[in-house]
UniProtKB/TrEMBL annotation:
It comes from the Bacteria. This is histidine kinase. It comes from Azospira oryzae (strain ATCC BAA-33 / DSM 13638 / PS) (Dechlorosoma suillum). It is a multi-pass membrane protein. It catalyses: ATP + protein L-histidine = ADP + protein N-phospho-L-histidine. One of its GO terms (cellular component) is plasma membrane. Gene3D superfamilies: 1.10.287.130, Histidine kinase-like ATPase, C-terminal domain, Sensor protein qsec. Keywords: ATP-binding, Kinase, Membrane, Nucleotide-binding, Phosphoprotein, Transferase, Transmembrane, Transmembrane helix, Two-component regulatory system.
């Protein structure tokens, strides 16, 4: 037996989960760092704005020396130097009375209060305020770089643990994800050790909620496989039994023909061999048909008119009906107002269904009896009816009659007991309802096949 080739894994679930968790963790951490940077920047703005305002008011409280004086810049918070200018209002206009080195000879800002603008090639924050008497104005300014530097420092303090802790987090997640996937590995081990014909379910112990649907689906699959194997074993046993009987009869008749001389006995034995061969061929044909229609088969359904199929089948089986003096009647009057009668069907399968129903009716009705075949419309549904005036099937035995290899009248029956089971399977493939009842004259059997409405 060839070794089973294991599929090449497309990806590692463990690695994918690890990467996803690390990516989500890193994104959350980076978002936290960004939020911390923005928060630190806002706090730095508040602190440095308060310092600028305090510096301006201290300068207003200082009486400047008369004339134009330049001094060193005022030291600011966190080492950020503050430039300043003090302007005095005169009848000739504003005069610069005092300024720090680097502040220049022109006003730092034209806006009263706080203002942020580009100055001297960089981003600066300015504050301007007049004295109470309106004679002096102080303008102070500080580069914005110090504020960004403090916010970046706060963000880096959070980024450093991320850089150092990410490998440790990856190792912890690798172990955690591995432990979380242990149930899947356990299930794979159970499946690897499982006998191919074992009907036992996997879900014998507690499993995680995420794995439970997989286990339930596998248990359902195993149950269906077990039923299929049981049906196959039963079908094989029944088929072997059914084939053994006609083969034994053929062998016996052939031996009789060999022992008999030229005459009537030999002729009768050879005729029996031919009849037995025909019955065996029919049995094999029905076995092959049933195997083709077993679970897993799919029918390609197309809109079609079943009346030509009914005419064809009745024409083919007319000689068999005449040989038994059976009156075979076909009624196709019940069509739509425009003369059409359409259903969703498969022509080959419907031919098999019609042939089995009509052939069964001819075989099981009495000699000189009647068989009726009709196609009619009942609302949106198409109804096929095949009836006879033979012995019929008792109500308590009708369900059993749909089983395989079931013959309710073995003393008289020539069939294999597969006809109605084939009909039932074809009806299932068409979504049709199959029912057995009493014939139109109160005796015999009437088989109804009701096809669903044709989809719009």
């Amino acid at each position: 037996m060839a070794a089973v080739q294991r599929p090449t894994p497309a990806y590692s679930l463990r690695r994918r989960l690890l990467l996803l968790l690390l990516a989500v963790s890193a994104l959350i951490w980076l978002a936290t760092i960004a939020a911390a940077f923005l928060r630190a920047h806002d706090l730095a703005d508040d602190i440095f704005d308060a310092h600028l305002q305090q510096t301006a008011r201290l300068l207003l409280a200082t009486e400047p020396t008369s004339g134009h004086v330049e001094v060193r810049p005022t030291p600011g918070a966190a080492g950020g130097e503050v430039l300043f200018q003090i302007w005095r209002r005169t009848p000739q206009g504003p005069v610069l009375a005092l300024h720090s080195a680097g502040a220049g000879q022109t006003p730092l800002t034209a806006v009263e209060g706080f203002a942020e603008t580009r100055w001297n090639g960089g981003e600066w924050r300015f504050y301007s305020e007049w004295s109470r008497d309106g004679l002096r104005q102080v303008q102070v300014g500080q580069s914005h770089d110090i504020r960004y530097a403090l916010a970046q420092e706060a963000a880096m303090r959070l980024l450093a643990p991320l850089i150092l802790g990410l490998p440790l987090l990856a190792a912890a997640l690798w172990v955690a994800v591995g432990r979380g996937l242990v149930p899947l590995a356990r299930i794979a081990e159970q499946l690897d050790r499982r006998p191919p014909d074992s009907p036992q379910p996997l879900g014998s112990g507690p499993v995680p909620a995420e794995v439970a649907p997989l286990v339930q689906a596998l248990d359902g699959l195993f149950a269906r496989i077990a039923r299929l194997l049981d049906n196959e074993r039963q079908f094989t046993a029944n088929a072997a039994h059914e084939l053994r009987t006609p083969l034994a009869a053929l062998k016996t008749q052939a031996q009789v023909a060999l022992r008999a001389g030229e005459g009537e006995v030999r002729q009768r034995a050879l005729l029996n061999v031919l009849e037995g061969t025909e019955r065996l061929a029919r049995l094999v044909e029905q076995l092959l048909t049933l195997a083709r229609l077993d679970p897993g088969a799919n029918a390609s359904l197309q809109p079609l008119d079943p009346r030509p199929l009914a005419r064809e089948v009745c024409a083919v089986l007319a000689p068999a009906a005449q040989s038994r003096q059976v009156d075979l009647a076909l009624d196709l009057a019940g069509s739509d107002g425009d003369g059409s009668l359409t259903l969703a069907g498969n022509g080959d399968l419907l031919r098999i269904l019609l042939r089995n129903l009509v052939d069964n009716a001819i075989r099981y009705t009495r000699e000189g009896g009647h068989v009726w075949v009709s196609l009619a419309r009942d609302g949106e549904r198409v109804v096929l009816a095949v009836a006879d005036d033979g012995p019929g099937i008792p109500a308590e035995a009708r369900e059993r009659a749909l089983g395989r290899f079931t013959r309710l009248a073995p003393a008289r029956a020539e069939g294999s007991g597969l006809g109605l089971s084939i009909v039932q399977r074809v009806a299932e493939l068409h979504g049709a309802a199959l029912s057995l009842g009493v014939g139109p004259e109160g005796n015999g059997l009437r088989v109804l096949v009701v096809f669903p409405p044709l989809a719009a």
